[in-house]
Write a structure and sequence with these properties.
Blueprint: H1 12-26, E1 47-52, H2 58-69, E2 73-78, H3 90-100, E3 103-107, H4 111-119, E4 125-127, H5 135-149, E5 156-160, H6 165-177, E6 180-184, H7 193-201, E7 206-208, H8 212-216, E8 221-224, H9 238-245, H10 252-255, E9 263-266, H11 278-281, H12 288-306
Parallel strand pairs: 1-2, 1-3, 3-4, 5-6, 5-8, 6-7, 8-9
Helix pairs in contact: 1-5, 1-12, 2-12, 3-4, 5-6, 5-12, 6-7
The structure holds phosphoric acid mono(formamide)ester and norvaline.
Residues 129, 164-166, 225-226, 229-230, 267 line the site of norvaline.
């Protein structure tokens, strides 16, 4: 069973192949990129269930479109639509869905829900974001860097702000794609040590720097994300966070200290004027909208890997 749950669990050669295939799909060198009129439909006859316990624009639409371009069909569900939201267990839900469906994508809260679903499913499961991780995003980010700057190996990636779920998957990607990683944010929001340790064990040079001006000078790629993730909306005082995180805002003053050829990325949705200013997000170094587009291409390659239709 080829689940796509977290990047540290997948052979790095497979991850490298998925990114290469995604670039070929985007460049039209792969027949499945041509959309609805193309005769190559590797997902023909297959139905994918997408369960969203949290809102989504990019993940939901890019998977839906990608699956249809590959010839498959989709059913989009929210956890509260299902009996899952009314007491049926995750394990029983997985067993039942496996009888109808060829693949399940889930965006949920606790990572334990994702793993319980996968452990009880007879069909592949893809992680569409949890409180802890967001691997599909990191695959699109690696693809975006490589299409603009070539191999990401030994490049210097800087994460500014909150050491959140996207940051965690970026650290797993650092271990698997062999890039170096610097975290720069307040100590209270450091990434979980298990992700930092994983990247180090896999040979990534991982550093924590508290001064953004020092941290940015050597970076090939500068990344940030919202200061308040979806699962934190009710339990964080935005005033406290603003005060803590303000020094790590990515603005043009800070970007002036970066190398001219350094790129900026944000997984979106962005909160303009908070973690990033509009001049940076819309500036020449920003590849945020390429990242969003690349979700479509890389997820088509992930779907093909999961279903063994390479
Ligand atoms: N980046 C990302 O996953 O966006 P959505 O929340 O819109 O899916
Ligand atoms: N860290 C953000 C990512 C959104 C794509 C969140 O979890 O809300």
């Amino acid at each position: 069973m080829k689940h796509f749950l977290n990047l540290n669990e997948i052979d790095s050669n497979d991850l490298i192949h998925i990114v290469e295939q995604a670039i070929n799909i985007k460049n039209g060198q792969d027949k499945s990129s041509k959309g609805a009129l193309d005769s190559n439909k590797p997902l023909d006859g297959k139905v994918v269930a997408m369960i969203f316990d949290k809102p989504s624009t990019r993940t939901r639409v890019s998977f839906d479109v990608g699956i249809k371009q590959l010839g498959g069909q989709t059913i989009v569900l929210s956890g509260s639509d299902l009996q899952l939201g009314h007491g049926e267990s995750i394990a029983d839900t997985a067993r039942v869905l496996s009888r109808y469906i060829d693949l399940i994508i889930i965006r949920t809260f606790d990572e334990s829900t994702l793993y319980e679903l996968a452990q009880n499913s007879n069909v592949p499961v893809i992680n569409g974001l949890t409180n802890a991780t967001h691997p599909c995003q990191s695959m699109a980010d690696v693809m975006t860097f490589q299409e603009h700057r070539g191999s990401i190996k030994r490049k210097q990636i800087l994460w500014l702000g909150d050491g959140n779920n996207v940051c965690a998957s970026t650290l797993q990607a650092a271990g698997q794609f062999n890039f170096d990683f610097t975290f720069c944010g307040p100590e209270t929001l450091d990434p979980n040590h298990s992700y930092l340790d994983y990247a180090k064990r896999k040979g990534s040079n991982v550093t924590i720097v508290r001064d953004p001006i020092k941290a940015i000078s050597n970076a090939d790629l500068i990344m940030t994300d919202t200061w308040v993730s979806m699962h934190e909306k009710n339990n964080q005082s935005s005033k406290t966070l603003d005060n803590q995180l303000k020094p790590y805002q990515v603005n043009s003053e800070l970007m002036k200290q970066s190398k001219k050829e350094a790129l900026f990325m944000h997984c979106l949705p962005a909160h303009r004027g908070q973690e990033v200013t509009s001049d940076v997000l819309d500036g020449v170094q920003s590849k945020a909208f390429d990242q969003a587009e690349n979700r479509l291409h890389v997820q088509k390659a992930i779907l093909r890997w999961c279903l063994d239709v390479l």
